[in-house]
Amino acid sequence: MIVVRGTKKFLDRAGRPAAGDVTSSGLLGDWYVNVWFWRPQVAVFVNERTLLPVLVPLAPAASAVERLRGSFGEVAGRIGVNRTTLAAELESMDEWILAKTASRSVLGIMNEFSHLADAYRWRHDLIDLVELSLWLSQVPCSPLYGGEGSPDRELSALLR
């Protein structure tokens, strides 16, 4: 089971958070999600441990978390993580629960990804959300400087 920690913008559209303290069972831990008000709207998920961004269409919002699993699998597969470890992580994503955000650091990274994605968006006619996720995953993130430095390399190191 994973915990998906949504911003107020996301929770207003997708559902109520669970009460109490909950923890994720997978290697990657919790996921954070926010909404980008593009046309069409996008749900941006960021993994707390690796800071890996995964973008999925928001509509319908009630099933956006369910689409995270497939999009994450595609992004992680294109990054080249170990297939056996990835399969186990995808299995842990079968069940999920909504919660409120708890890390201001992850929210700050999400804001940075938003600015970078806007710049990317203005240079491309058609936006492929998997390609944009992969492009953002290569961005150096200061919280990862003690580790691998960027979300794609952090994910590869964690899912060996």
Estimated helix fraction? 40-55%
The CATH topology assignment is Nucleotidyltransferase, domain 5
Unreliable residue runs: none
What's the story with the biggest beta sheet?
5 strands, mixed
CATH class: Alpha Beta
What is the SS-derived class? alpha/beta
- What percentage of the residues does DSSP assign to strands (E)? 15-25%
Side by side, the strands of the main sheet go 4-3-2-1-5
Total number of distinct structural domains: 1
- How far is the first residue's CA from the last residue's CA? 21 Å
The tally of strands reads 5
Oligomeric state of the chains present here: single chain
Order of helices and strands: EHEEEHHEHHH
Average predicted confidence as pLDDT: 93
Q: Give the name of the CATH architecture.
A: 2-Layer Sandwich
Taking all Cα atoms into account, the compactness measure Rg is 14 Å
Number of helices: 6
What does this structure look like?
- The chain is of the alpha/beta class and 160 residues long.
- It has one domain: 2-Layer Sandwich (Nucleotidyltransferase, domain 5).
- 44% of the residues lie in helices and 17% in strands.
- It has six helices and five strands.
- It has helices spanning 8-14, 64-79, 83-92, 104-123, 129-137, 151-158, and strands at 2-6, 31-36, 42-47, 53-57, 96-100.
- The chain has a five-stranded mixed beta sheet, with helices on both faces.
- Strand 3 (42-47) and strand 4 form a beta hairpin.
- The longest helix has 20 residues, at 104-123.
- It is globular, with a radius of gyration of 14 Å.
- The mean pLDDT is 93.
